[in-house]
Design brief:
- The protein has about 300 residues and is an alpha/beta fold.
- It is about 45% helix and about 15% strand.
- The strands form three sheets. It has a six-stranded mixed beta sheet with strand order 2-7-1-8-9-10, with helices on both faces. It has a two-stranded antiparallel sheet with strand order 3-6.
- Strand 4 and strand 5 form a beta hairpin.
- The two termini are about 25 Å apart.
């Protein structure tokens, strides 16, 4: 019953035909696992599903596909991205002035409104058919939040909440692991380590409270960090092609190289640690094809 939905999705998202093949082989069976959990959670509120993947792995695409397939099964689904909970540009400038200049750049733990995300999870979990929940949105082309009146909204009741993001489910590192700079950004702009310690502390606090609410964590595992770097460049090129000329949030190559260094430490940490922590891990090759699955739920891998 899913083939036509998947084929339509591939056309709509301008994806290669191989995506349809992988979706049938790997993602359709996932629906049975999700529905099993929904069955066990009757009257207990929505199932909260996390999708982790480094930049460019396709996590937002997977979230959209799962939303489409679940809706076809009459499971009302809310699709959230942690990126849409970034602080505004002005709020990040305040953090940069008060705590560390590197916090002016969006992305790392400490640059999201975790209180707002927690509030929206509560609202979605409690929403009835007469309740309409406004979902925040962030425009990366201008590097700022979208006005509330322009944001999407959704009515309850909600059966499944999907939240995707590049460090969803990640645990903080040990303090000693932060001592040695990992790249030029850390060595020069964070020589005393105060930024990376702040980011790590933030990850260990409010974010863990959010991650502990996940009922299922899915990881799209990139081959290595070098591939993540290449995929992120492709993302920026697509953003450039679809943004107005001169959009302030679109980065030049040298800006992108520096920007990605903000993410390197936690991305490498996720690549090394999350396969053991996640419920389901889809292993990707350099062509974005799924080549294998690790299932830590007790199902068939």
């Amino acid at each position: 019953m899913y083939q036509q939905l998947i084929d339509d999705f591939v056309i709509q998202e301008a994806l290669p035909q191989t995506y349809s093949e992988d979706a049938q082989t790997w993602i359709v069976p996932l629906l049975s696992q999700i529905e099993d959990q929904l069955q066990r959670r009757q009257q207990k509120g929505p199932l909260i599903l996390g999708i982790n993947g480094a930049q460019g792995t396709g996590k937002s695409t997977l979230a959209k596909l799962l939303t489409s397939l679940l809706e076809a099964r009459r499971h009302h689904t809310a699709n959230l991205s942690i990126d849409d909970f970034y602080y505004s540009k002005s709020r990040r400038k305040q953090l940069a002035a008060k705590i560390h200049p590197l916090l002016a750049s969006r992305g790392v733990p400490g640059t999201h409104d975790t209180q707002l995300l927690s509030q929206k999870l509560q609202e979605l979990s409690a929403a009835t058919a007469s309740d309409r929940v406004v979902l925040p949105a962030f425009d990366k082309a201008i590097d700022d939040c979208i006005a509330v009146e322009c944001c999407p909204s959704i009515n309850g009741p909600i059966d499944v909440i999907i939240i995707e993001g590049w460090f969803i489910g990640a645990l903080p590192q040990r303090s000693a692991e932060l001592d040695t700079p990992l790249n030029a950004l850390e060595a020069v702009a964070d020589a005393d380590g105060s930024w990376r310690h702040y980011v790590n502390d933030q990850l260990g606090q409010n974010y863990q409270e959010l991650f502990n609410q996940l009922h299922l964590l899915i990881v799209l595992q990139a081959p290595d960090f070098a591939q993540v770097f290449a995929w992120r460049r492709l993302q920026e090129e697509k953003l450039r092609q679809h943004s107005p000329s001169g959009a302030s949030g679109v980065m030049l190559e040298v800006e992108l190289d520096r920007f990605i260094q903000h993410f390197e430490r936690i991305t490498r940490h996720c690549l090394a640690s999350l396969p053991q922590q996640a419920d389901i891990v889809y292993q990707l090759d350099k062509r974005h094809r799924i080549t294998g699955k690790l299932d830590n739920t007790g199902g068939n891998g």
